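Subject: Sanity check before I submit

Could someone independently write out the structure tokens for this chain? I want to compare against mine line by line before I put it in a report. The sequence has 441 residues.
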Amino acid sequence: MKRILILLYCLWPALLFGQGILSTLDNMHSVVKGETWESVSAHYGVSVMDLRAANPDVKSQKLKKGTLLIVPKRPQQTTLVPANEVPEKPLRIIRTVIPDLKVGVMLPLSDKKMVEFYRGLLMAADSVRKSGVNLDIHAWDCGTTSAQVEALLPQISELDVLFGPASATQIPVVAEACKERGIRLVLPFFTGQALQEYPLVYNAEPSSVVLFGAAAQKLVSYYTDRNYVIVGSGKSDVKGKIMADALRQNLAQRSMTPRVLALEGDDFAYEAAFNQFRDNMILLDDCSLPSLEVLLSHLKEFRSKHPQYRLSLIGYPEWQGESERLMEELFASDAYILTPYYYNTLDDKVKRFERTYAKNFRAYIMKENPRYAALGFDLGCYFLTGLSTQGDTFEQMQSGLRQEPYQNWFRFERSASSLSFSNNFVQFIHYTPESKIELIR
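---
Independent answer below. Compare away.
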């Protein structure tokens, strides 16, 4: 058998010459995603008929990525190429729209939260289809292990975008496969920063470093004339430390220094930390609810003794889950809760969304923060609309997308040290002393 293969290898040029093919070859072309018979023939300046005649074994009307094509020479044409000129690489077709979008979803669908997210994504797909976009959606239950997700990777090659997975152990494997195939990977639940070398990865849920850095920058730029006070809880809370450090750094850039106050300090300590003639912005270095309740109690007592002081509290996303129970205290404390999402159950639009979900799936949306169905819908609309209307220019044009979310806003940006995108959107839910709620974006 080995001798036969060697013989064929040696005779191959002769066979080609005998068929009149060798004399007409210019080069070989490896098909990249999105290329067609027409685009390849146009690039090399040959007719589609000649290109197909040179490749009789390629029967399909649609070219598959990786297919090798024989490119015939241009008839009756001689091109002189300087010896020092590097031959031009085949051009990649840039799609400005993608009317037929191939979408993948990889999630552990045994988890009710993931099922709810997927249902929200399906509702987004129905909405996008109304604008004339064809969507081909494939969903896989990927479990939680690397082995489970690796078995599914051969099926993703034709996708334009993939949502998921959720498991941190699976994400690097899938990210590498998407990078090789040029597929956009959207991670709805990943908060880490380990995927910085992947240019088509989107972290929808910002890490604490990204979220708190953006929040501190926004606070200090909006409220430059206020007295900032950091309340030390004495606990080693990671998120609280990140937020406190971010606030200190942004204040230092403006030559400002926050005052420091111990959570269990007495009335004299609180009065010494606050400024009677300026608005006071108070940040607790602990996002836990027990520490919050202690601080709210101290602030309530302080306000009763010193009504002339103007106090405002800076809060964490985790506090949203208790906002209904602590509503009066938040209003009284003029609280600004930073968060990347906000779900207003009293909004008529949100009520309609919940009714549609219940009608479609015969189930009610779980009362979680955030709402997974709304996250699926908002994220789905953002990418399905964006990719279908902007195609391969999505990375450059996405900032112009019009958003009307039920819960989550998106502002995907690359940091100076990362190729991947992270959602840098942050807002504040302001509970005003007049018992009103306003969003500061």
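---
OP: Matches mine. For the report I'm noting this point. The two ends are 71 Å apart (CA to CA).
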